[in-house]
Amino acid sequence: MRPSHAARPHGLQPPRRLRRFAGHLPRYAALLAAIGIWAVPVLWVLATSLKARTDIFTIPPRLWFAPTLEHYRTALGTVDVSRSIANSALVGMLTMGLTLLVSVPAGYAYARVRFPYREPLFFYTLFTQMAPPVGFLIPFFLVLSRLRLLDTHVGIVLIYLTVTLPFAIWLVTTYFLDVPRELEEAALVDGCSRLTAFVRVVLPQTYGGVAVTAILSLINAWNEFVYASVLTGARVRMAPVAIFGFLTTEETLWGPFAATAVMIMGPVILVAFVMQRHIVRGLTLGALR
Amino acid sequence: MTRRTQSSADARQAPPGVLAAPAPGALRAVPRRRPSHDEARFGLLLAGPSLLVLGLVSTLPLAFLVAVTFFRIEVTRPWATGFAGLTNYATMLTDPRFWHSLRVTAVYTVTSVALQVVLGLAFALALAGEMRGRHVLRTAVLLPMVLAPVVVGLVWRTLLLTPRYGLLDYLATVLGVGSHSWLGDPTLALGAVIVLHTWQWTPFAFLVFTASLAALPVEPFEAAMLDRATAWQRFRYITLPLMRPAIVTVVIIRTIVALRAFDAIYAATGGGPGTATEILNLYAYRVAFNGLNLGYGATLTVTLLLVTAAMTVLFGRLRGAVESPA
Questions:
Q1: CB contact residues (below 8 A), chain B span 82-111, against chain A
Q2: Which of A141, A172, B6, B215 would disulfide-bridge A107, Cβ 3.0–4.6 Å?
Q3: B187 is in which domain, residue-wise?
Q4: Would you call A160 helix, strand, or coil by DSSP?
């Protein structure tokens, strides 16, 4: 592999391990740079949320400080924030549940069942994810206000299905395509009905994929902002909208803002950490958002 | 070059062919036998609810949206409401702010997608193969992709870019670039939001390229080593051509997403200062929900949708050409 090195007299070379380390140095520098670029801003938010007011605005920035939870108390003491987080969690869960209920059978049908117009319908499903949220705000606003569903949990959950459903159907279909066909053929030979073969035999094989779909749907609904900003108000305020409350033109409350940001990002980061492999696959496979 | 032969686990994760929406025919794996009546009913029963929901929350609103573009609907002037024919479109074509926002959108999209591809490829090449600390990296790069874009935008606006107190502004001062009003200065703001978008989405390019690098065949590289090709030659004449489908896929997906970007830029600058970072999406939002001119706002978003759809078709052709070279 490296003839030039081998040709050199042995005694003149630095110890092997050191040499190997030096050879890898640029790669580890790149690794550190990448981790720094993408992790430091997030860690910085966490640090800020734990700093006392005076420490936040110290220049140069303090890396060592006495951590305090006062900003979390302030943020959660604001009725708006604690309620909006509860709202976001509830709406996220409901959206996730409905999304799975509808997307899992659809995914199975697209992957395994022959029915008329299957391919055009599948592409129609994919096409719906091009929905421009800013444009859709206009019809949604007009229709929801007519139905008296503005600023209600039901209304926003229905709207969030436009965000989660096309992606979920697509993702779940790819997971069903991965299941060996022999499995359900054997089940059918054994006398199972199509429905039993799907629910009892094929579905258990894709629990992992369904879980990833569930998590990504939940994250999408939890993070959504455009629809929430216009279609919900004081009653059903969502967390990504409520956080703006700390950054008004009169005052900028960095501490409580950072604390709220941590509370919004924290659960997602935890999930991302635990399921990183699966989420990476799900995101790179179908991230047509 | 032993790093091409790394664990096949990574390779299995994302075969390069299926990174985006499947090509036509992707569903053909279903058995060839003639669909029975029961089978067809079963399929429609399973897919039906999803079609019903998508029809109600996606296609119907789209039809409504297109219809609205032919009307004059201004909430502040209800008496002026009425059928307007193509007036909204005519207004748009002579609206300098529309053309400006189209230019901003183009600059924003092209620059940030190019940066994502170049940086993603550079990091993927530098970090290919087994390494200690890879799982830390995997978690780190996942962060910007899964966090709420609106929160990310706000964090950049405050904790990172605020003059004097922001972390990045402090770094710029230390590095001798000096403290600037990054988001308040019209000439810097567009660059700043491009950097922000690039930060958010380079991880996507990195992850896709890492997976497809790991799946490259080893033989061409072994042959090149025997021929004593330089590292640059191996990259230029082997890696790059083999990676082309993955690069095209990333460009397509990232372009479509960049065209639709809204949350982060809204949170960071709101389109300002003035109209310096006003992409088409933001202009439409301002017209419809600050100016309450729904008809014209709808026209702008329909235009954006048409641009996005045209790009999708164009890219689809392009990808077809790449995957089956003449």
A1: none
A2: A172
A3: 104-291
A4: helix
